[in-house]
Amino acid sequence: MKLTFLSVGRDRSGLFQPGVDEYAQRLARTHKLALVELPESRASGEAAKEDEGARVLAKLSARDALVALDERGKALSSVQLSQWLGRQQDSGRDVAFVIGGDEGLSEAVRAKAALVLSLSALTLPHRLARLVLLEQVYRAFSILRGEPYHKV
């Protein structure tokens, strides 16, 4: 199973990159992994969402189960996320997680998503959301493997 983490924009602060690198290394031990950063659109508002959405969709393959990160998405527990990922793994699908830019995700991206996922009811900076997402995906696979990382 290949895991792709697509995000719009870059972490210019450098605050979150060490954590992202740590969990990416951990996940890469057991899965093919790609961290893809797409540049923010030069447009604004709805035009930016549409431009970024088109570029996100162009990066996906037919094998990808798309997970769109959105504050209006479904809130899953770590165990529920692990179960969902386990079903994707069993079906032979790859998974692509998408974090939009400042304007959010286009409706085209949301419509194509196999899962629209909310990490929290709180508003998180996109770079922090990417770190939280990587940690939760790592946790989900450790649950599937029965490893002690996740304590109930």
Report on the structure:
The protein contains five helices and five strands, in the order E-H-E-H-E-H-E-H-E-H. The protein is of the alpha/beta class and 152 residues long. It has one domain (2-144): SPOUT methyltransferase, trefoil knot domain (Alpha/beta knot, 3-Layer(aba) Sandwich). Helix 3 links the parallel strand 3 and strand 4 (94-99). The longest helix is centred in the last third of the chain and has 19 residues, at 126-144. It is globular. The two termini are 26 Å apart. The mean pLDDT is 95.
Quick structural summary:
The protein is of the alpha/beta class and 152 residues long. It has helices at 17-28, 45-58, 78-90, 107-112, 126-144, and strands spanning 2-8, 32-38, 64-75, 94-99, 115-118.
Looking at this protein, list some descriptive labels.
single chain, 152 residues, alpha/beta, Alpha/beta knot, five-stranded parallel beta sheet, 5 helices, 42% helix, 24% strand
Total number of strands: 5
The number of domains is: 1
- The CATH architecture can be named as 3-Layer(aba) Sandwich
CATH class wording: Alpha Beta
Question: Helical region count?
Answer: 5
Q: Which percent band covers the strand fraction? A: 15-25%
Biggest sheet: strands, sense, closure?
5 strands, parallel
Can you give the helix content as a percent range?
Answer: 40-55%
Determine the structural class based on helices, strands and strand pairing.
alpha/beta
